Amino acid sequence: MMVLSEGVRRTLRQARLYGYLIERNDQIYHPGAFHPICKKLFALRLVEGGWLMKNDDRYELTTKGRKASD
């Protein structure tokens, strides 16, 4: 089993809890939030790793990301 960093786990948990994350001002937020969860670059790396999927300004969990967020 792969050990994930706290930042990755936190981002995946937030995506699972809210259903998706939103990109605003080069940062990632959950819907309705004022404080960012992470930077856009970090989220793009999660997309490259197969944990998240990018749809316009939304980031959604992939099957791999859903399993890791448990």
What are the key terms here?
5-stranded antiparallel sheet; alpha+beta; 70 residues; 3 helices; globular; single chain
How would you characterize this protein structure?
With 70 residues, the protein is α+β, with helices and mostly antiparallel strands. The chain has one domain. Helices cover 40% and strands 24% of the residues. The chain has three helices and five strands, in the order H-E-E-E-H-E-E-H. The chain has helices at 6-18, 40-48, 63-68, and strands spanning 21-24, 27-29, 38-39, 52-55, 58-61. A hairpin with an 8-residue loop joins strand 2 and strand 3 (38-39).
Write the layout of secondary structure elements.
Blueprint: H1 6-18, E1 21-24, E2 27-29, E3 38-39, H2 40-48, E4 52-55, E5 58-61, H3 63-68
Antiparallel strand pairs: 1-2, 1-5, 2-3, 4-5
Short description:
The chain is α+β, with helices and mostly antiparallel strands and 70 residues long. It is 40% helix and 24% strand.
Report the mean per-residue pLDDT as an integer.
93
Assign a percent range to the helix content: 40-55%
Structural class: alpha+beta
The total of beta strands comes to 5
Number of domains: 1
